[in-house]
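Lecture notes, structural biology module. Today: joint structure prediction for complexes of two components.
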Amino acid sequence: DAGVIQSPRHEVTEMGQEVTLRCKPISGHNSLFWYRQTMMRGLELLIYFNNNVPIDDSGMPEDRFSAKMPNASFSTLKIQPSEPRDSAVYFCASSTGLIYTFGSGTRLTVV
Amino acid sequence: AQKVTQAQTEISVVEKEDVTLDCVYETRDTTYYLFWYKQPPSGELVFLIRRNSFDEQNEISGRYSWNFQKSTSSFNFTITASQVVDSAVYFCALRQDSNYQLIWGAGTKLIIKP
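The predicted structure, tokenised, for the full assembly:
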């Protein structure tokens, strides 16, 4: 298994642009999580899905952030419009409930 | 309320020393799971161990060992004969039986000096 696959690995964008982060979970994992990691705030849960259904999105910072999971093998996290304070590493993780596997992360820089 | 506390923000030791990273948790659930993850300088999050609340046996894996004590709500991690490659941020996390979210500690940055 290739593990959790995130793309892109790095993204540099200008303030105001739309950014889409992608995640392919491990086949057979029924939960998917999006995290954001910064030096100031550490690891923050943004949203998680169970069986493709959003369960808790209370961590999503504001309406500029949205996440979808159209099927069991794909999820996106979109930021529109992006702001410099969105600069962070965004991790996707998939899980069986007992096994939690993280992708390599997307390092987002908004200038 | 559920919470994970890693009181040690940063630890620095010389190679070959033993080092213990502390993790204290709070939960009202009787069934729960505890995890340790390693985040090396390259940035990925690497799974180290999972323990469920019914299994208080200590675990040893090579130079790594874990001490789970329900009486003190602690799940401490010891590295014996530390090596420079052990330098990383280590996170402790809790999953309650009632949902799939992981509650994370703030992490402990471990620096192993040659």
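Point to remember: DSSP finds no helices and eleven strands in chain A.
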